[in-house]
Design brief:
Length: about 140
């Protein structure tokens, strides 16, 4: 039996999600706002969210692999201390009670990295929740 988060072909993965009592459009706007982007990138990224666009911030470097305005961004994700590339997907989905922000991070090499990213993405969603309550 595999440990939680270990996959047969994609290394280690983590999924974190929260449902907020706002519209999907409002959740997306918060996620992609200057303050929202600073939560997950560590600083205000200065790049276009379009397929093929590369980025480098204090938290990670990567490339946008897929982008659908209002609902999806999929990218490679490599923190400075990693010597490999992982994959990150963030989606905003309509829910019965508002909107769900779902973060799926895969292709990590071990459980320590998985746990570090679980803590990071949980903190991002917790802070987004505080931002959304303040609006």
């Amino acid at each position: 039996m595999r440990p939680v988060g270990s996959t047969k072909s994609q290394g280690w993965e983590i999924g974190v999600r929260r449902t907020f009592p706002v519209s999907a459009a409002r959740a997306w706007d918060a996620l992609m706002s200057k303050s929202g982007l600073e939560l997950w990138f560590g600083d205000d990224p200065h790049f276009a969210f379009k397929k093929g666009e590369s980025f480098k911030t204090q938290i990670a470097t990567g490339e946008i692999r897929s982008y659908t305005e209002g609902s999806l961004v999929r990218m490679t994700w490599q923190p400075p201390e990693w010597d490999f590339i992982s994959t990150l997907q963030i989606r905003v989905l309509p829910a019965k009670t508002g909107a769900t922000i779902s973060i799926h991070h895969e292709k990590m090499q071990n459980n320590n990295q998985r746990e570090a990213m679980r803590q990071h993405w949980t903190a991002v969603l917790d802070e987004l929740g505080r931002m959304l309550k303040g609006t």
